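Pilot study result, target chain (179 residues):
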Amino acid sequence: MDKQGEGGRKPKTNLEMRKQSETKEKIAEMEYSSKHRSITAKKRLTQDQLHLLETSFITNPKLEGESKQELASKLGLPPKQVAIWYQNKRARCKTEVIEHDYKATQLQLQNVLAHNQRLQSEAHHLLFLASNPSAASASASTSAPSFSVPGSSSLNSPASMNSIWENAIMEELYACLLE
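Predicted structure:
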């Protein structure tokens, strides 16, 4: 014998109840979307509207109440849409500035790293010359300028040239290490 619920009907199974619930949800979604479709429909701006917005933005990137109303009436758009366009434009401009600054910073970083690499290479070369006096004197005799001070012929001697060269190397090394 079948069990019957109130009023002589059979109780619904889980499957029947789930189908009925899903059907109700779909109907509710369709009703909601049909009511709100006109509100969420996005209008494309014409070229003239865009041109007017762009020129207005250049002169005044932040709109106030009265100028927003005036511009909206000129464009035939709701003031809220004009305000949102301005907000989006400011965000795009800010992003462009950040990207430009990032690229400039990257370029500066590359230049500094290249300069640092040259200085490190030069410092290694100078350390090598400082640790090898024979290489330093050979390098000094080939690349150091010869100069003389009137009344003092001892500055051109190899020993004094080597000493001057070593002092110059040490001063340059010290300067590189301080940077």
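One observation from the pilot: DSSP finds six helices and no strands in the chain. A full batch analysis is planned for the follow-on phase.
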